[in-house]
Amino acid sequence: MMIPNDSNIFVVSLSVADLVVALYPYPLVLTAIFHNDWTMGDLHCQASGFVMGLSVIGSIFNITAIAINRYCYICHSLHYDRLYSLRNTCCYLGLTWLLTALATVPNFFVGSLQYDPRIYSCTFAQTVSSYYTISVVIIHFLIPLLVVSYCYMRIWVLVIQVKHRVKPELRTKLKASDVRNFLTMFIVFVLFAVCWAPLNLIGLAVAINPEQVAPHIPEWLFVMSYFMAYFNSCLNAIIYGLLNQNFRKEYKTILLSLCVSRLLLMETSKCATEGLRSKPSPAPTNNNVAELNL
């Protein structure tokens, strides 16, 4: 049994959110590291911070949407087709990214997108506004964390009931592939929570008492928590590849096609070189004979 197409839409959306940060902000970060300063101007600073915010908030909102989708699919299977028709799914996806944009735009009004030399990037500054930082942690992290935890807790309860045959009538509804897909997305969620918790906890502590807490946070701790958080974008593809058979199959197909293409290119180049080396000398003509006699 395959993952429903509507669930695949949310997975692709999560992949896009993870990929966006690598296409624009990360190259600018590498440039800042190379020059040991931000040399791209304020416009790129604001734009890269905004794109990075879209990626981060988009990731957590898509993970939340996936958890709700899995919860409805497993725990409310009778109503699932009606709730997640193709039209409704597209509306949910659009709503997810609309909320992502609405949650990111206020950074421009607060002025919280600033260059931080500790991490060589323009990002959300936790010390600009205590109230805004607390709001960001609650809306962008704690509330999605609670929603996803509730959804997966209910799914776990159902899986345990099926396993111990507390509700044997559910055995026909819950397939092994459903459980594997659920476990994959659950691990995605757990890694997201683990990777982002340190940075959000630091931000919350700084927001509560910026004058006392901010100066006492070691730079190495902030840098480690920051890069640990953004490294999470690289982990999802690894998780999909390790735990999902379809992704493993596609990865192998892509790698084999790349290897075969490279081998064909090498063989073509080799044959062309050998052909030039073994090309026969031109037949002697009157002009050639005349040149030899000279």
Automatic annotation (TrEMBL):
It comes from Pleuronectes platessa. Keywords: Biological rhythms, Cell membrane, Disulfide bond, G-protein coupled receptor, Membrane, Receptor, Transducer, Transmembrane, Transmembrane helix. Pfam families: 7tm_1. One of its GO terms (biological process) is rhythmic process. One of its GO terms (cellular component) is plasma membrane. Residues 1-240 form the G-protein coupled receptors family 1 profile domain. The keyword Disulfide bond applies. Belongs to the G-protein coupled receptor 1 family. PROSITE patterns: G_PROTEIN_RECEP_F1_1, G_PROTEIN_RECEP_F1_2. The chain crosses the membrane at residues 7-27, 47-68, 89-110, 130-160, 181-208, 220-243. InterPro entries: GPCR_Rhodpsn, GPCR_Rhodpsn_7TM, Melatonin_rcpt. One of its GO terms (molecular function) is melatonin receptor activity. It comes from the Eukaryota. Signal peptide: none annotated. This is G-protein coupled receptors family 1 profile domain-containing protein. Gene3D superfamilies: Rhodopsin 7-helix transmembrane proteins (1.20.1070.10). It is found in: Cell membrane. High affinity receptor for melatonin. The activity of this receptor is mediated by pertussis toxin sensitive G proteins that inhibits adenylate cyclase activity. It is a multi-pass membrane protein.
